[in-house]
Structures are given as structure tokens and as C-alpha cells.
Write a structure and sequence with these properties.
17 strands, 8-stranded mixed beta sheet, D-Maltodextrin-Binding Protein, domain 2, alpha+beta, binds magnesium ion, 336 residues, binds 2,5-anhydro-1,6-di-O-phosphono-D-mannitol, Fructose-1,6-Bisphosphatase, Chain A, domain 1
Length: 336
């Protein structure tokens, strides 16, 4: 059977599912940028790209050289194609405006250019997460610069979401709102090849992912749930659970899409101004769309992540996602 590349898959989608041609082009360009980031990440010390810059991002976090480089790669790849009204990145304070010399388009692109970047220097998987929405109304036809309001749409409005994971293999996982598929980068050919059709998250699981070092800061429902997981067969859940924490959301979510599991980054009591660590627009929403499209569940502990009305571009939210049985249970404990 001939190999189905990302380009071919997207062209077939355009024909059979009326995926608009400009959305197809946009996804192709994002994928091309991910190939470039994959290449830079894989060079490591040989490319002089490891280590930190002197700067901090808007979240007050130290930026890695590869955070900055990946951000630039995504901006440069996507600014000229005429598909976008604006972009927003975890690494930038304000929305990025399409330069006046290029045409504008109907979509908004948000991304975390290099998620899990604390893992870069230790050669552990990192990734790029992205989300596509429509620019509301005819906002792309205005000459003015776009403010963050255009981006403040609930995750249900996403028309596409995906991530690239830069691990032993580079993979691109994508949803256009009708299931989830995965492509593996063939480095010799330079193309993403369809390798994972119709990815599904198993409903039940015996594996969980959480940063246990924060345990003393968690709220009561999470304390209760994790106590029960740790109690194993002798506890109320009646089975033994295994734990994994990669500290790259992309890699943890990829494992859950592959063999099930529950991922948690709860709110904790350290800093009331930070309700969780992960960002709604760059991490939680795209991953929630992917997980739901694969049959899993994603909540902030009390409600569906995709229903949250964003109030700020860089808003943080608690995240519980993965196998339905477990996410429903921990969400139920919050709502009890
Ligand atoms: P980043 O976008 O600055 O890399 O932060 C997000 C990452 C996630 O990939 C991961 O799940 C989490 O932070 C790990 O946090 P911690 O270091 O607290 O374990
Ligand atoms: Mg990041």
C-alpha cells in the first residue's frame, strides 16, 4: 500500500470533508515548522542551541535558547501565507501581528513553541503544541492590529489542534474535529507519514501522571484521589496503579493517547494568583480537544476545559485529562 503523507491526507480531507484549502495550507506550514524545530532539537550541543538565554518570558520563566528559536521558526513560517489574522505564543506578551507586507487570512494560530523545555538539556522528549481558531466576525479584514479579545474564545471553537513530539521519533498528532491521527516523520524523505489511524484513549487505566513533589500543596479532592490511587488493590479503587511523570506535557499526553492514563496538573495553594501551571490557550485547550476527539475526557476539576470562557491570553488552568473513568472520578471528587 502506498504511504499516506500529511499532504496527501490533508488533500483527501479537503475533498471528502470539505476541509477549507486555507486550513489545509496552514496545517502544512505548521508541520513544516515542526520539522525545522525537530531538526534544531536533535542537533543538541552540536548546534549550540542548548542552555538558557538572558531573558524571561511573559510568565516570568527563564527562556531556553530553543524556546526562542522555536518561536521564531513558527512565526516566520506562518506569517506570509495569507491564512492568518494573527498569532499568539506562550513566549510572547502580546499577539503577533501579521506584517503589513503580507496578506491576512481568516484564522488565529496559538502555540507553545517548545513545551517541556526544562527537559531539553537532559535529552528528554519535548514538543510543540498548537491550536487553530477562526478570527471572529470579519476581524481579519480590519487594518488595525488585533488585540487579545479576538483570541478569547472557548476551546469548543477550535477548528484544529495538534502537537509534535520530539522524542526517539518525531511525530505529529492532529485533530480537525473528527478523530485523531498520528504521523511519523520519515527523516530521509522529509515527510510526515500516516502511521496511527483513529487514535483512541482506553476508557479505563491503571496509570497516572502527576508531579508528586507538590503533594503538600494540593487541594482536598486531589489529595483524596491520589491517596486512593496509591492505596492500590487494598484501597477503595481495588487495583494497583503505576505512575509516570515526564514533565513534558506533550510526552505525557502522547503516552496516554497510546496506552491510556490520567494526567493531572492541579491547582495548588502556593500562589493563589496562579490557578495551576498550564496555560489554557497554548496547552490545555489543544490537548483537551485532542483527548476528547480520541474518546477521553478533559476537565479543570469542575468543568469541561473546552467550555471555559477565557479571560486572558496567558490564563492558567488546572488540568485533568485522559481515560474517562479516572477523569470522571477525580472531577466527581471536586464536585462532591
Ligand atoms: P513549559 O511550557 O514552560 O515547558 O511548562 C509546561 C510543562 C509541561 O510540559 C509539564 O507537564 C509541566 O510543565 C511540568 O511541570 P513541573 O516542572 O512542575 O513538573
Ligand atoms: Mg513552553
Amino acid at each position: 500500500m502506498s504511504r499516506v503523507t500529511l499532504s496527501r491526507y490533508l488533500i483527501e480531507q479537503t475533498r471528502s470533508h470539505n476541509t477549507p484549502a486555507d486550513l489545509r495550507f496552514l496545517i502544512e506550514v505548521v508541520a513544516r515548522a515542526c520539522k525545522e524545530i525537530s531538526h534544531a532539537v536533535s542537533k543538541g550541543a552540536l548546534g549550540g542551541v542548548l542552555g538558557s538565554t538572558e531573558t524571561e518570558n511573559v510568565q516570568g520563566e527563564v527562556q531556553k535558547k530553543l524556546d526562542v528559536l522555536s518561536n521564531e521558526i513558527l512565526l516566520e513560517a506562518n506569517e506570509w501565507g495569507g491564512t492568518l489574522a494573527a498569532m499568539a505564543s506562550e513566549e510572547m506578551d502580546e499577539p503577533y501581528q501579521i506584517p503589513g507586507r503580507y496578506p491576512k487570512g481568516a484564522y488565529l494560530l496559538t502555540f507553545d513553541p517548545l513545551d517541556g523545555s526544562s527537559n531539553i538539556d537532559v535529552n528528554v522528549s519535548v514538543g510543540t503544541i498548537f491550536s487553530v481558531m477562526r478570527c471572529p466576525g470579519e476581524c481579519f479584514s480590519q487594518n488595525d492590529s488585533l488585540g487579545e479579545e479576538a483570541f478569547l474564545q472557548p476551546g469548543t471553537q477550535q477548528v484544529a489542534a495538534g502537537y509534535a513530539v520530539y522524542g526517539p521519533q518525531t511525530m505529529l498528532v492532529l485533530t480537525l474535529g473528527e478523530g485523531v491521527i498520528g504521523f511519523t516523520l520519515d527523516r530521509e524523505m522529509g515527510s510526515f507519514v500516516l502511521t496511527h489511524d483513529n487514535i483512541r484513549v482506553p476508557e479505563s487505566t491503571a496509570e497516572f501522571a502527576i508531579n508528586m513533589s507538590n503533594q503538600r500543596h494540593w487541594e482536598a479532592p486531589v489529595q483524596r484521589y491520589v491517596d486512593e490511587l496509591l492505596a492500590g488493590k487494598e484501597g477503595p479503587l481495588g487495583k494497583n496503579y503505576n505512575m509516570r511523570w515526564i514533565a513534558s506535557m506533550v510526552a505525557d499526553v502522547h503516552r496516554i493517547l497510546t496506552r491510556g492514563g490520567v494526567f493531572m496538573y492541579p491547582r495548588d495553594k502556593r500562589d493563589p494568583s496562579k490557578p495551576g501551571k498550564l496555560r489554557l490557550m497554548y496547552e490545555a485547550n489543544p490537548m483537551a480537544m485532542i483527548i476528547e476527539q480520541a474518546g477521553g475526557v478533559a476537565t479543570d476539576g469542575t468543568q469541561r476545559i473546552l467550555d471555559i470562557q477565557p479571560t486572558a491570553l496567558h490564563q492558567r488552568v488546572p488540568v485533568f485529562l485522559g481515560s474517562k473513568e479516572e477523569v470522571d472520578r477525580v472531577t466527581g471528587y471536586h464536585n462532591a
